[in-house]
Specification:
Elements (H helix, E strand, L loop, with lengths): L14 E8 L13 E8 L2 E10 L1 H13 L6 E6 L2
Antiparallel strand pairs: 1-3, 1-4, 2-3
């Protein structure tokens, strides 16, 4: 199977991703990765945590599994860039 994304992400290349989850994640999540930044935004009166970091696909999957393990639904996962 070939990569259908000519200019998109690859399995092994680092890329910047932005992940949005409901609620307010605390600074302990920064210990998960030194490449992770967390901001909390207000959406319709509810807090939404925005996690931004540079990961390869394996690290991204690990982070998503951690979020799943604590029962947080994903609002969005967005690929920002490949550089």
């Amino acid at each position: 199977m070939t990569n259908q994304f000519k200019r998109g992400p690859s399995l092994h290349q680092m890329a910047t991703y932005q992940i949005r989850v409901p609620g307010r994640l605390d600074a302990s999540w920064l210990e998960w990765s030194e490449r992770l930044a967390i901001m909390v935004e207000d959406e319709n009166g509810e807090p939404v945590s925005v996690l931004t970091g540079r990961f390869d696909q394996a690290a991204l999957q690990g982070l998503l599994r951690q979020l799943y393990a604590i029962g947080l639904p994903l609002i969005s996962v967005v690929w920002i860039n490949e550089s």
